[in-house]
User: Fold this.
Amino acid sequence: MLIDNKKYDVGDIVALKTIAGEEIITMVEEEFALSDSNDIIVSRPMRLVAQPDGVAMMPYLISINMVVGINEKIRLSRHNLVVIFTPVKDVKTAYMQSRSNLDLGAVEPGIISG
Assistant:
């Protein structure tokens, strides 16, 4: 069993596993702790989908407005979630790219000098 006893803050990227077996990557819109039993508020949830050449992300909710810059908040019931955890760096980067339409992997982190 994966145990992650942390508190998640606004802006954190989290991965969720639903009782239906779907894995969702999303951004936290209201802070919560794993010990809370309240629903969680997130925005722009993306579902991981297996592809022949790897894993892809697609909108979890097809009919929601996924336009860049518009963050509709969604309430997810904790009763429908099996696990909540922090995804690996590559998944976070891919999720942020899907939110911004920018290639975040193209630039090496560091100090910009001219």
In short: The chain has a mean pLDDT of 80. The CA atoms of residues 24 and 70 lie 19 Å apart. The domain at 7-100 is CATH 2.30.30.100 (SH3 type barrels.). The beta strands are 7-8, 13-18, 23-28, 32-33, 40-51, 54-59, 73-76, 81-85.
